[in-house]
Specification:
Helices cover 16% and strands 18% of the residues. By secondary structure, the protein is of the alpha/beta class.
């Protein structure tokens, strides 16, 4: 008699799984080839798509944050869209950190890594990157054409580094960049070349240069910046030297209630030129030795080809000198001037034959014996010519006449359409025979009857019509005599000429 073999726990578990799995008791397990096919169809189960060790993978997001990594894990899945490598020890980003092309990657996070070196070819494999975070690292310089491969980049975070040198071509080809964060670095020179012509970063809407080592600002050029960038320029936390143009720049932002000024008023400070004492920039109004006054601003609208005069109506007396600064940063100091701008004897600026590029903010700098004052005039040039008064009047009359004619045509169409008279049609028809209803076909329309006794022939209603006499003769110019009526049945109405008769009876349908 055979002795039963002891069952292994694993075998028992396998049997219980096979007998009572997901499909219920007695349902067999799916075959092994099916499981392999499902694994291959999964994005993380395909070849080259496995999740790297110490990382968390969810759909197309690969998070390796705080994984104590000293290098970028490899291989990376080709379909990765968001790669988070923050809070690690990746100190160098070489050109071969991504062995293959990551065409789907649009966000790369490398903050808090102690990163000190980034190769100029490091971003050649991620051409569709839109968000790059290199903040809180140890970068000291931005090399030549460092980000030139990122033509679709929109947000670049470089704050909290040690950057002191920025190459003039570091941000070339970033035509879609909207936000650039360079705060908390060691930048000592304002990178005006990024903003001057507007062609290098045409879509830039936010520039953060706070907490750097800037000691002076090109206020005239900053006033000429487009409004969407000028109003989102963060400059707090810099050791700026106090002067009246700086005060007027900040005071203008407070008057417009810009977030870059309203949210950081305590940090907008400067150093007095004589004592190096730190004071609030907005506290310079009437303070010795600068005695700065808040600038006044006016808005003027004009059209292409117009000639306008911008007045420099200062409140100061004993003006020693004055000059204008155009939106392009050019100074107009001599009377007469050149080109389309001319300085008049009373200090006003005359602009002839306005062009679209003449729009912007013009600044009039006035130097007095005790105070200095700056007046700003914002010129809006509409991109069309203004019609004269006669042309405008003619256009109004033309529009009014067109409306009246339209109404008249509509009334004619509604109320003066051709008349459809039954009498006109009856005059053209010959009189029907007396037995028309009997001889008519069931498929033809019943002939028209005149008002009278049924069965009597239709008489013409025209003035020249004739009617029968008593002896059966026709009398010229006579009028038809009404037929005799006997009883209530003889008084029933007959159909008018447009009524419809039944196809099965010669009795007309009364309408």
């Amino acid at each position: 008699m055979p002795v039963p073999r002891p069952q292994h726990p694993c075998d028992a578990a396998g049997q219980s799984t096979a007998m009572g799995g997901v499909g219920g008791p007695g349902t067999p397990l799916p075959p092994v080839p099916l499981l392999l096919a499902l694994a291959l169809l999964s994005p993380w189960g395909s070849a080259g798509g496995s999740c790297p060790p110490r990382c968390v993978c969810a759909s197309n997001i690969l998070s390796c944050s705080q994984a104590v990594l000293s290098a970028v894990p490899a291989p990376l899945p080709r379909f990765t869209a968001v790669l988070d490598l923050s809070h690690n020890n990746v100190s160098r980003l070489r050109a071969d950190w991504a062995p293959g092309r990551l065409a789907h990657l649009h966000a790369l996070l490398l903050s808090h890594n102690g990163l000190s070196f980034v190769s100029t070819e490091a971003f050649a494999h991620v051409p569709h990157l839109r968000h790059l975070d290199l903040s809180s690292n140890r970068l000291r310089a931005l090399e030549e054409n460092l980000f030139s491969d990122l033509t679709e980049l929109e947000v670049l975070l470089l704050y909290n580094n040690e950057i002191s040198a920025v190459d003039r071509t570091a941000f070339d080809n970033l035509s879609r960049l909207r936000k650039l964060y360079l705060g908390q670095n060691r930048i000592a020179r304002f990178p005006l070349e990024l903003l001057r012509d507007g062609s290098r970063l045409p879509q830039l809407a936010l520039l953060d240069l706070s907490a750097n080592h800037l000691r002076s600002l090109p206020v005239g050029e900053l006033q000429a910046l487009p409004a969407w960038l000028r109003d989102r320029l963060y400059l707090h936390g810099n050791p700026l030297v106090c002067d009246c143009p700086l005060f007027q720049l900040v005071a203008r932002g407070r008057r417009r209630r810009l977030s870059a000024v309203m949210d950081f008023q305590e940090e907008l400070r400067c150093l007095l030129p004589t004592t190096s004492t730190s004071v609030g920039i907005l506290a310079l109004a009437g303070r010795q030795p600068l005695n700065c006054s808040e600038a006044r601003e006016a808005v003027l609208e004009a059209h292409l080809g117009d000639t306008v005069t911008l007045s420099c109506d200062t409140r100061l007396r004993g003006v020693r000198s004055r000059h204008w600064v155009t939106p392009g940063g050019e100074r107009v100091v001599e009377e007469g001037g050149n080109g389309s701008a001319a300085l008049l004897a009373n200090g006003s600026l005359q602009l002839r034959a306005l062009r679209p590029e003449d729009a912007g903010t013009y600044a009039c700098w006035v130097a007095g014996p005790l105070l200095n004052e700056t007046l700003y005039v914002e010129l809006l040039v509409h991109n069309f010519t203004l019609h004269g008064p006669h042309d405008t009047l003619n256009t109004a009359y033309t529009t009014l006449v067109g409306c009246i004619l339209s109404v008249v045509l509509v009334l004619i169409y509604l109320y003066l359409t051709p008349c459809r008279c039954c009498c006109c049609r009856a005059a053209d028809k010959p009189p029907a025979p007396r037995d028309d209803s009997i001889n008519s076909s069931v498929l033809s329309a019943t002939p028209n009857h005149a008002a009278g006794v049924p069965g009597e022939p239709c008489r013409s209603r025209s003035a020249s019509a004739t009617g029968p006499g008593q002896n059966g003769r026709f009398e010229v110019g006579g009028t038809p005599q009404p037929p005799p009526r006997h009883g209530p049945k003889a008084q029933r109405k007959v159909s008018d000429p447009d009524s419809v008769s039944s196809v099965f009876s010669d009795t007309p349908i009364v309408v």
